[in-house]
Amino acid sequence: MTAETRYAASPAEVLRWNTEQTRKELLIEKLFVQDEIKLVYSHYDRFVTGGIFPVSKPLQLMAPDQFKAQYFLERRELGIINVGGAGTVKVDGESFEVAFKEALYVGKGKKEVIFSSKDAAAPAKFYLNSTPAHHEFPSRLVTRQDAEVVTLGTPETSNHRTINKLIVASVLPTCQLQMGMTELKTGSVWNTMPAHTHDRRMEVYFYFEVPQGQSVCHFWGQPQETRHIWMQNEQAVISPPWSIHSGAGTSNYTFIWGMAGENLDYGDMDVCATPDLR
Ligand SMILES: O=C(O)C(=O)C[C@H](O)C(=O)CO
Ligand SMILES: [Zn+2]
């Protein structure tokens, strides 16, 4: 297991960043390494992003040194979305079967979390987000039928997409974690457009189902001072709480968003008028 630390930065500080430093600070280039657990610990809301890719053996989630904890969920909660083949997550002896694009919430206090694939030829890929927690809520599988689903945008504005809210207050209780998955329709490329900020919550985006040879240009920064990061399939990006977080692909794609911070109100966004973006 590896666990890298990323620091928080102010809007004034990032004005000096060039492309290389921007990528080093915010982009998570490789999350899935065969038979390994990769974690990134961000100082924004102590949010952890990870990839767990069990192929030939089960993998147990341990507390990284950054936590100074006996076990991963001692003071945390966890959300997982499977972006690979069928997999199993064993939580203190209870097995949850997690299929492609299904989510699992695991509450604070669970001591042993073990990930495995059903078939090494079609291995599971568990994308993970974790945040500090102060209350134990029950662990629960969230299937696509359980999700709150909203369709936004139009083909004319190239932002026609379905937002699947998986780990959100309207589906199940959490302390501060929210997660979901947005699927763009064929021909649409813009996500989260019109753009917004929510200074109360940071957000991490994980882009996948980006077709071979295509890329997504992720936009971030203050609305009047935007920047971009070119991203490839199965890469994640940290979005500071003061930043917009939108993207345009060279094709349609899917992404997972995860948030943490002050509140659990998904709709609590400060929308930016598109002509005002700079
Ligand atoms: O495409 C979208 O719009 C989203 O998926 C928005 C994210 O869920 C988000 O930014 C929530 O704050
Ligand atoms: Zn957002």
How do the helices and strands line up, and which of them pair or pack?
Elements lengths: L1 E5 L4 H4 L4 H8 E2 L7 E7 L5 E6 L5 E2 L15 E7 L4 E5 L2 E5 L4 E4 L6 E5 L8 E7 L7 E3 L5 E5 L8 E7 L10 E7 L5 E2 L4 E2 L3 E8 L7 E7 L2 E7 L3 E5 L4 E6 L4 E8 L8 E2 L7
Parallel strand pairs: 1-3
Antiparallel strand pairs: 2-21, 3-4, 4-11, 5-10, 6-9, 6-11, 7-8, 7-10, 9-12, 13-14, 14-15, 15-23, 16-22, 17-24, 18-21, 18-23, 19-20, 19-22
The chain binds the ligand O=C(O)C(=O)C[C@H](O)C(=O)CO and zinc ion (ZN).
Keywords: Isomerase, Metal-binding, Zinc
Function: Catalyzes the isomerization of 5-dehydro-4-deoxy-D-glucuronate to 3-deoxy-D-glycero-2,5-hexodiulosonate.
Catalytic activity: 5-dehydro-4-deoxy-D-glucuronate = 3-deoxy-D-glycero-2,5-hexodiulosonate
